[in-house]
Amino acid sequence: MHIETEPINFKFPTVSQMIRQKLSDLQIQYLAQLESGSTIQELIQNGLKNGWLVNFVELYKLIQTLVELNLVHNKNFYNYFSELKGHSENSVKKTQTLSSPVKKSSDEYKKEFKELIKLPFLRSLDSNIAMKLLEESTIVDFPPESLICKKDDVFSRSLYILLEGEAAIYGQGEHTKRFVSLLKPNNVFGEMGFFLGVPRTADIVAVRQSKVLIITGSTDFIEKNLNMDKAEHLVHRFWIQQALLNSEIFKSIPSESLDELTFGGQIVRTLENQILFNENDMTNGAYIVVQGQFSVSIGNKVVAKISQGQMIGEISLFKTQGKRTATVVADKDSVLMHITLQKFYYLMSQNLYLAKTLQDLSQARFEKNKGGITPPPSFPQKK
Predict the structure, then answer these.
(1) Is residue 202 over pLDDT 80?
(2) Radius of gyration (Cα) for the chain, nearest Å?
């Protein structure tokens, strides 16, 4: 649900002085623009056109206050905050209660899978293709230590979505199998074999009792509906979604916000020891690490390591007048999603909750590293 493009219908011509006393000076400035008829999106975009950065945390708190004090007529605003409050409890949990194989011809089956269709990966597909894939799927229970899929299997083109439990990825070490990473609910695996027809690159083993949605797409169906370019694009999108779902920051963000991030950037590859950007460079956007790891240095001191699902470069978008606060270097060959400066602010104007979350992240990281950084100017901030 979006509230950013909806004009606020205030219950009173002006918010009372008593309530205004509870607001910050910045919130009073924002309130004046909203009372004059600007939408949240227009407020943000107009500010940026005039060269000012918006404090999304303050703006979010202002809207939240207006709703909590019952000062607006807009039902969508009340529903918006209600949904955010309940999101962590309700997100995809209903998809994890099915246990029997799919009945392909049953109308009831489609009703049951109304929740499964909301899984991040399936949301990214055309709805007709997603439903067709679900019609060719089964849900299987795997006991602990059982093999879900096998390395080097060249015959299977199944895609797997972990609904419940945990599973481990094992690659081949020099003399024995090597643990690579742990899969958790909503993680997808087997994508390279499914989309591109390449052999499985790892063994996947259930760590504890696990429930897995297995999508078995026929070669004819995949090749008819997904050409090579589109298949590679979907693999990249899958990588981004996996990174976001595994992120402590992004995994609690509502699904529509994750989708906007997924579709909002471009894949960038870096080589080991490649400099992503230098301290004091001017910003060209932000990055989310999809695969790999990066070192963040201020001066000659490494202050942080950034890995999958974490954001790089967001401080310069919210603070420091667009100037990079650190040098970032790839520790190994890596993959990132780059969100341009213009696209980043457009996404922020479309999703206030996402903007507020990312600014909170930026502030926390800024405070952690501020020993070597000049404090930002007070609002209004020049870009």
Answers:
(1) yes
(2) 23
